[in-house]
Amino acid sequence: MKKLYSNKNNKEYQKRRFLKIERKNRKKNKLHTQEKKRRRRSLKMINEYHKNKHKYEFPLFAPKDFRLMENTEVCLNFFREIRSYENINNIGGQKKVLISLIDVEEIDYATISALTAISDDLKSRKIGMQGDFPKNAKCKEYIIESGFLSHMVDGSNRQFPKFSKSKFIFFEKGSGKLTKKDSKNISELIKDVVEHLTGTRRNIKSIKSILLEICGNSIEHAKTKDRQWLLGVKFMDGKVSFTVTDVGKGILETLFINNAQIMANLATFTSRLNILKGAFNQKYGSSTQEENRNKGLPAIKNNSDMGAIKNLIVLTNNVILHFGDDNKSSTFSSGTSRFKGTMYQWELTEECITNTINYYGEN
């Protein structure tokens, strides 16, 4: 070995070899140093943000009157801003929408349902939501009670602490067709609802069928990435409030209307409100053109008419339809925000259960 290394040619070879290894290690160390510096800069920026987060303003402030069913157009404008790509921020390598609820003085259950559905849709696209509490103590308590905080992180990019599960508000989620698991969960939910209203825990299949009909229509008209839907239930004294929400295209955008009908509508200046009413009267077909499609909308209206459900409200695209009070129904002005998707809201009472059993039977 010593003889080989003492040879002139071998010496030159070893020298070139060592220089090559040294250059390679130097380059490797340089890249490693650059990466360390880059990480330090990123960490410094993140720490600077957290240290001075009180100086940063949230770009999207929720309105003071944050009641979707009362202050509809203003709330829809806020929802449009949340879903706009222009308001997606890149914080610490993560995509986030920054919102502030600090000014909120009034909020309703429909708003919580819509925010939850929008948050789930953003999450499916790997976009988080960062926000804060309202100053108003009552609104703050309501948001905590709803469980919505589990969908957000705070100003320091930390998850809000988990609060005990609400005894009054529940959400059931799904995507695509209703699975056996979804059906089982809804059966248990119906038992809870019936027990709350009547004092007796039992599963009334006809009530479950009404709920599945509305969920099924939400899935049909969703057209979201995973056809996501969200069922919300709020227990109150003497009644239970339901919402079914999707944030897809909405009923009006998925209706199929042939050319003759379009011409007739244009000739008579038919409003989109009347077109939606027509859909619930089975005047139009759905975009799928399947024989059994869209029969659910007239069935939903029939259940409202015969008292199986109360105070039914449908919000979709640029129309809000109040089945209980047509004077509150309206088409939003051209150029204003619209609800990208569909929300059904209705109430169930002990009287509704009696009407349902009398009309359909218990099974």
Can you describe what's shown?
This protein is an alpha+beta fold and 363 residues long. α7 (205-222) crosses α11. The strands form four sheets. The protein has a seven-stranded antiparallel beta sheet with strand order 7-8-9-15-12-13-14, sandwiched between helices. Strands 1, 3, 4 and 6 form a four-stranded mixed beta sheet that branches. The chain has twelve helices and 15 strands. 46% of the residues lie in helices and 20% in strands. The protein is elongated and about 105 Å long. The chain has helices spanning 2-6, 8-51, 72-82, 109-124, 137-146, 180-198, 205-222, 251-254, 259-267, 272-280, 296-305, 350-360, and strands spanning 60-61, 65-66, 88-91, 94-100, 106-107, 128-130, 169-175, 228-236, 239-246, 255-256, 285-286, 310-317, 319-322, 330-331, 339-348. It has two domains: 56-151, Transcription Regulator spoIIAA (2-Layer Sandwich); 169-360, Heat Shock Protein 90, CATH 3.30.565.10. Mean pLDDT is 78; it is low at 287-294. InterPro entries: HATPase_C_sf.
Low-confidence runs of at least 5 consecutive residues: 287-294
Q: Helix- and strand-based class?
A: alpha+beta
Element order, helices and strands? HHEEHEEEHEHEHHEEHEHHEHEEEEH
Strand order of the largest sheet: 7-8-9-15-12-13-14
Q: Tell me the distance between the termini.
A: 94 Å
Question: How large is the share of residues in beta strands?
Answer: 15-25%
CATH class of the largest domain: Alpha Beta
Query: What is the CATH fold-level name of the largest domain?
Result: Heat Shock Protein 90
